Amino acid sequence: MPFEPDLIVLDAPAADHPFTQRVLEALPGVPVRRDHTPASAVETLREEAVDVFGAAKRQLVLTTFRGSFLKKCPGLSPGMVCCNYYVVNLIKNCVYDCSYCFLQDFLENNPLLTAFVNIDDLLVELEEEFREHPDRSFRVGTGEVTDSLALDDLLPYTDYLVPFFNRQNNAVLELKTKSDCVDNLLKQSDPTNVIVSWSLNPDEIVEQEEVGTPSLPKRLDAARRCAEHGFKVGIHLDPVILFDGWEKGYGRLIEQVFDTLPAHQLEWISLGSFRYRPNLKRMMQERHPHTRLLTQEHVAGSDGKFRYLRPLRNHAYDTLRTTIKRRAPEVDVYLCMETKEVWEGVTGHLPRADETLDRFFDF
Ligand code: SF4
User: Fold this and answer.
1) pTM, two decimal places
2) Is residue 23 in a domain?
3) Is residue 58 part of a domain?
4) Smallest CA separation from ligand 1 atom 2, residue
């Protein structure tokens, strides 16, 4: 079922924007409040809703963003290895409801599903930035605080982003998703400079923990269609979750990936372990009381996030990397949001932050 919000909150500066008109035309039956601000909409939810965060995902704010869209990836934390990545946030929050989603903590005070309609301003900013730094390679992701494609039928940002990135000499776009919502994307004729990456987990984790997301076969089929269309495809096994039987579960998942996608069509596979800040644990316990993710021991890292004990992480990464390499030695595997010690322990070397991943994008 296509997503339909319960309410649209229309911020005054966004009202006459063509993108706003496009979205409103696609949602003719949804009530629109022009007298509400995002803050007053949240206030009302706090008075009326039991699950404020869950209800806020169903209220769509159309607004404009003032300031600089392009940001260095905030994943760069003390002790962690940087992947030299930039993010732009056109949407905040997500229509899915994964139990482990960090947005429950990160957006707790500002949880409404928010779309910035002034994509024209973003493209001007990016054009200037890319032109000012012709010697730099920009990898730009839109999936930091949302799923890049889950709403692309309704909020068709790829109509603007893909043709723009097609023309760039020093920039690629990464669309990171758990969705199967690729019909709009597949209308684009040119896949140049665009990588579509899927976040995958074994079926049992998808069913138990990734609430509202498309099944694993649907995601893989969407990835296959994008690869056949010529888009580069990446895979994130992230968060890796250590449940009873995880070795078999992830082994099966890796088989399913390579049964669907030929290795030569895969740009990389990234691995990242389940991690959380203390406040997320409280939100998970409140909003997802049946989650099985909090039963094991976790330790705080230098970035303040809790993870599985390092030997368990090392063992899991090593197992998955070996399984992938056995099936497809040519596929590059890298670790996301990990310490130097874990990188060295698993891969035998430490990446250089400014160069390591550039080759994945054929600069
Ligand atoms: S798909 Fe990503 S952004 Fe959406 S709820 Fe799940 S973890 Fe959060």
Assistant:
1) 0.92
2) no
3) no
4) 147
